[in-house]
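To: structure subgroup
Subject: Chain for Friday's discussion

All,

I'm putting the inputs and outputs inline so they're searchable in the archive.
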Amino acid sequence: FFCDALIEWIRTELDLPVFANELTMLRTKEDALPKSVEYLFLATGYYGKEEFEKVKSVICEGSSLSVEERRKMRADVYCRKQKYKLALSEYEDLLTFVPEADEKFAAKLHHNMGVCHAGLFAYDRAAKEFKKAFDSYPNTESYVQFLGALKLCSSQEDYLNYLSEHPESYEDSLEVESRLTHIEQQ
């Protein structure tokens, strides 16, 4: 982040040569990013020490993650902020880089893609993604979400037919009904 172009911009456009020199020196340190961010936050007065400690923990946490995991985190933020199309684009792109052996990571991506599609009211697509997630790496939450999306995109008859063909879904279908009742009450 603290590349030559940014430092030069700080030096010339902001006319802060001392600040630019300090950032240049910090780039040579082993933990350059957290030290540079700390200097930036504290020198500008934009954030205090307490806020910096929170940011530092995020930076340190992120530095131990793979590129794919960091990209997933970014897509997760898009999803939480209801920027579903951006999140979907990132998740879809990530799927092309995930090794086939990493079924759990792929399942997380498919699950979150299901969340995005549900947020866009595309329940048929959401159901497909939740089912892919469950098929890749079985977990109850993906299956419950699958049933919920299936209920919302299917006729009542089709949904009940699915449940009758899959008696193992009984407990999960009760959870779906409980969640939908809770949402209706809110």
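Points worth raising on Friday:
Residues 103-119 form the longest helix (17 residues).
The chain has a mean pLDDT of 89.

D.
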